[in-house]
Amino acid sequence: MSLQKKTMPDVILMVVTFLLLTIGMIMVYSSSAIWANYKFEDPFYFLKRQLLFTLFGIVFMIGMMNIPYLFWKTKAKFLLLICFSLLLIVLIPGVGLVRGGARSWLGIGAFSIQPSEFMKLAMIFFLAYYLSISQQKIQSFYKGLFPPLAILFFAFGLIMLQPDLGTGAVMVMTCMLMLYIGGAKTSHFMVLIGIGVAGFIGLILSAPYRIKRITSFLDPWQDPLGSGFQIIQSLYAIGPGGLLGLGLGQSRQKFYYLPEPQTDFIFAIVSEELGFIGGAFVLLLFAILFIRGMRIALLAPDSFGTFLAIGIISMVAIQVIINIGVVTGLFPVTGITLPLMSYGGSSLTLMLGAIGILLNISRYAKV
């Protein structure tokens, strides 16, 4: 299939992405300098690594932006196979690295990657490919819906063996949304939701630490020095921020109260230092990002481009909603990062690569 390419990608999407990266860089330094100086005797430790991750991610984004998105249609099954292989390799004792109780990482020199992060994008590639060639069959459960569901839940099962419920949940929700938009019957989804809720409850009951997360979410003050500590400290950061915040660099909670605030809870420090206005501005940028992504999906010249864009922007939106919900005490702690802002290599690289694909699709958008 030959497509006519425009000269420029979506400029607004690109500008918003760089604004979020810039704010994230500033807040990673502000939130981590005290802890980095104590642990590594270098207040710039996390900033330097985040800068390196960002530069690598931008190069990756530019590369993806210049690869015609239809290329991924031909490689979707191969990429899925590669990611399945990595998920199996990471489970091998002595090969996969254990962090935070989860065997989720593969070491590559001084750096490490998280295969489950890339599996999310591989599943989006595969489902976009599958829906673009099988959309007419998707209303049939056994002929259309069951095959991708089987692959999805096999991937979810491998991720849960690490275990990493947060990443697995984002992947499942993104893919289920793609399947629903792709034309799957509502009645099939109602049954799947029921099964999913039962399975989710089973996963929670099977692990004591997950039960503690739920109980601490419902009432963190029951165990203020244990399972409820992180949520309480997050709320203590957000509350004093008020309308304008305490001022950039003036956070109190980063002084060893809120654990590793540069990662999942960076939005709490944003709210504390920049206040309601700063937090609302960040949310506005994410809203613009989502709107531009949906516009790209609607203007894509073919169904593969549409489903690919929907999958990518849905993944970003779901992560933002979960992360902000956790930080504000609306959801249990999951370990989901805030896209483009939280400290981390794999998640940042994946997000920038995914946005690069969106930008490429925008270059072929229908006028």
Q: Total strand count, please?
A: 3
User: Which structural class best describes the helix and strand composition?
Assistant: mainly alpha
The largest pleated sheet is described as: 3 strands, antiparallel
Radius of gyration: 20 Å
| SSE order, one letter for each helix or strand | HHHEEEHHHHHHHHH
Describe the oligomeric state of these chains in a short phrase: single chain
Percent of residues in helices comes to: 55-70%
**How many angstroms separate the termini?**
18 Å
Query: How many helices in DSSP terms?
Result: 12
The whole-number mean of residue pLDDT values reads 88
Unreliable runs? none
* Beta fraction: under 5%
Arrangement of strands in the largest sheet: 1-2-3
Which geometry do the CA atoms define?
A: globular
Briefly say what this structure is:
By secondary structure, this protein is mostly helical.
SSE map:
Layout: H1 11-40, H2 45-65, H3 71-89, E1 96-99, E2 102-108, E3 111-113, H4 115-134, H5 141-160, H6 165-181, H7 186-205, H8 208-218, H9 229-241, H10 266-299, H11 303-327, H12 346-362
Helix pairs in contact: 1-2, 1-10, 2-12, 3-4, 4-5, 4-6, 4-11, 4-12, 5-6, 6-11, 9-10, 10-11, 10-12, 11-12
